[in-house]
């Protein structure tokens, strides 16, 4: 049976973005099933005005900063479903619909005794958004467990399967973010979770949490609970105060620049990279510039984590951009380090 689609007009997106910006979309469509995408594509073949609208994909709205007025067709991906596809000798292959909550999906995998995603617990957003940003935390990136994904192609009107090598994953980046962001709509994502699980405890906060509780041989659930507790102690709940989580990427700099910074600031936090470069802690750099806890009129920097910008009430996308640019300028002036924003401004 062919799906019917009804486009809503002039819709507020305030409840659909974690920063709580009261943006309005010219056209809006919630996608609960694949056939709706097919029906939309078929309609676009004969409706020039619809086909010419810029499209904006919306998952959990946790990695996006919206303008007040969006002359877009906003597609909210809400396709659900979680399933074990197969077992191999070495992996459990699991699949989730693009509209599944990322954190709830991670907790589901742990409930099935599938380890691998626990370090990514409590990251906001949806499963479908996770490959776009190649989300990561506490020494693990989504690509570490990625198997494949299915995407709808708005050029051909057909489905395409992407393997890992097709996705051009990089630090907080992928082909879907910087190459083909307007062509493909991710429908579902599959993950290969290793049966020979090993904990990833490279970050001191996680190791200390487990040691304080005398957990010498942690399970995946133990690690997840540690991550959740640490994140909750540092990051604000978007339901309470609008935010987009970590606002800046941790910059990667040359060993030469890192050593220059260390000469002036011996306590600079840095992590060696395989190629000899160093990753710096963006939050530490911002804090040294005096931004932690600072409040402007409608926006500010969270008092517990300088990496997080927050909506103090009535913030607009332009307010957030202005604050971000001030922080970037101060970090550049003090450390000669360019900070790159994680969320996408639309």
Principal-axes geometry comes out as: globular
Total domain count? 3
| Major sheet description | 5 strands, antiparallel
- Uncertain segments: none
What assembly state would you assign to the polypeptide chains in this entry? single chain
Q: Give me the secondary-structure category.
A: alpha+beta
Query: Mean pLDDT, as a whole number?
Result: 94
CATH architecture descriptor name of the largest domain: 2-Layer Sandwich
Distance between the termini: 35 Å
Compute the number of helices.
10
Order of helices and strands: EEHHEEEEEHHEEEEHEHHEEHEEHEEHE
Number of strands: 19
Q: What portion of residues belong to β-strands?
A: 25-35%
Walk across the major sheet and give the strand order: 6-7-12-10-11
Rg:
21 Å
Q: Under CATH, the topology of the largest domain is which? A: Uridine Diphospho-n-acetylenolpyruvylglucosamine Reductase, domain 3
Q: Please estimate the helix content.
A: 25-40%
So what's the CATH class of the largest domain? Alpha Beta
Main location: cytoplasm
Pathway: Cell wall biogenesis; peptidoglycan biosynthesis
Protein name: UDP-N-acetylenolpyruvoylglucosamine reductase
Keywords: Cell cycle, Cell division, Cell shape, Cell wall biogenesis/degradation, Cytoplasm, FAD, Flavoprotein, NADP, Oxidoreductase, Peptidoglycan synthesis
